[in-house]
Structures are given as C-alpha cells and as structure tokens.
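User: Show me a protein chain along with its predicted structure.
Assistant: Here is one chain, sequence first, then structure tokens.
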Amino acid sequence: MLRPLKIARLSTRCCSNFVSRMRYVNRLKEDDELCSAALQNGHMFLFHRLSPLLQRTQQGTFRPATLITSDVQSILERLGSERTLLKESVLIGCSEQNQVQFCLDVGELDQAAVEEECGGTFISLRKSFFLLTGRDAPLVAKGQALLRWHQTSGFCSATGEPTQRNQAGSQRVCSSSGIIYYPKMSPVVIVLVSDGKRCLLGRQSSFPQGMYSALAGFCDMGETLEETLSREVAEEVGLEVHSVSYSSSQHWPFPQSSFMMGFHASVSPAHTQLSVDHTELEDARWFSLEEITSALQVKTPPRRGNPPVLWLPPKHAIGNRLITEWMDRQRRGQGGE
C-alpha cells in the first residue's frame, strides 16, 4: 500500500522544476514499473495512422486534444479495442504543469468513431503545422516521430529477430542478440543565403503553391555541417558561400524524422547569378527586404482561387526563424546607415 503513495509523491516532487522534471522523465525511461504507474494518471495525445487528433478552441484556433488515460481506456473499451492497446503508449515527456505526457496511435480503430468520441479531428501532420501555434507543433511532431519509429523498428537489423520495447518506448531490444536500438534522427542543414541586400529562397515541387523557404539538405556520411551547407548550395543553385554562422536547431518530422541545424551564409555581391538544379528545386530566387517583410505578414496560406502571393513556412519552423533573423539584421543595418 505504500508504493503508490511513494510514487505519487515522487511524481509531484520531481516535476517541480526543469532539472528535476528531466531527471524524473529519465527515471520513467529506466523503470518500467514507475512508468506504468505514471501512465495510469498521464495525459494522452492520440494519433490515427500518425495523424494527430486536434480540437478547435473557442477562439477558432486548433490545439492537440489532451485526454486523461482513464478516459482513453473507456473510449477504447466502448469501441471494442483490446485493453492491451494502451500499453503501446509512448512517453513524450513531462510538461511544466507537472503532467506526464504520452502518445498512442489508434490506427486500428475506425477514425470517425474515435473522432466522435473525443470531439476532435485527426489531421495530417503537414496540415497541422499550419494550424498549431506555440509549443503544440513540436509536441505532436515528437509524438509522431516516436510512434513512427516503433512502427518501423519491430525487427533487429542484425539478426532479423523481433525487438521488444520498454514501457516508456524509449528503446527497443533484440530478443536474440540483446542489441539495443534508440530512436534516431537524420541530420539536415538549412541555410539562409544573403548577398548583403537580398536573401535567397527556394521551393520544391511538393511545397504548397507560393511558399518559399531557405535551402536545406541532408548531411552525407563523413561531412561536417559546413561541408554539407557549402555542397548543398553549390548543387542546388550554383553558388559558393562564405562567412557561415550558426543560428539554431530544431526537430523536424519531415520527411520522417530530421534534426535541422540552421545557418546564415553569405555570397559575394559580384557572384549572385543563380544556376538552379531543377531536379532538386522547382524554383529559387533572390528576395528584397520589402518582399520578405510583406511575406512575413501573411499569417495563413492563401485560399485556392486567390491571386498568387509569396508566403513563408509557419512561425514555429526554423526556416521562418532564419528569415525573420535576416530581416531584423537588415533593418538594424539600415538604421545604422
């Protein structure tokens, strides 16, 4: 009778600040019993075939539907699901409000039935990124990435034998060899190139109409970040960069699970002629400060049938951050002239 009380005290105490929250989450990853206990009172984010469940707020915006584990269990039972499905939940983390967060994919259930029960809608992650704000987008991106990894990592690459996950879902172990697998991300460099007065943006054919972003590419084996950056710019637009500076990083769930590292780079104003590789990009262009300032004011993608307009990645995307940083630098530079 003492153990549940001890766990409850530990949960509250360990989530009182950032350091203790991180240590508590780490304990959940290492202790299956502790994680199972936390799951019983956890907050759950549902996915259906990797699409997150969103709810519309009274303000007309969207947020991830946050459900209590006991409510999810009741919903699963009403829809005829086996009770064991809840054990497939994956730990995401612990919020600042001391709520242990899990995610679960209910793709085996009827989508419409789950939506009706939960009062929400499953929306593809790409669309969700243009509907969510603040910390919600990274949260569902992390959840989807972890769920996808489990769905594609059921067997050991060395032995072909099944792998078994721990309760938190933070690792899988080969049942034969004991090899431990951890979730992985693919390193990607994203760079905003400038010639001093303009910035360079490109678009892939898969982008929504009118959207441009900074150039990006995967790191090749053995490359440094600087080498990847220089190679990608040379390959895609035929320019040689210099004066590279680091900005920030971000997990990005596309095409599957990428680790984006953002940079600024410059080219000589005397060598700005583009030679676009159309197998990589549909288009690439230089944009002025005025054009970028106007594009950043476009808050939502243009509706079909409306006149074409330049628009940029959502605010929480690292591409948007790089572009905004460049705009701010340009404005400060003009102010000092």
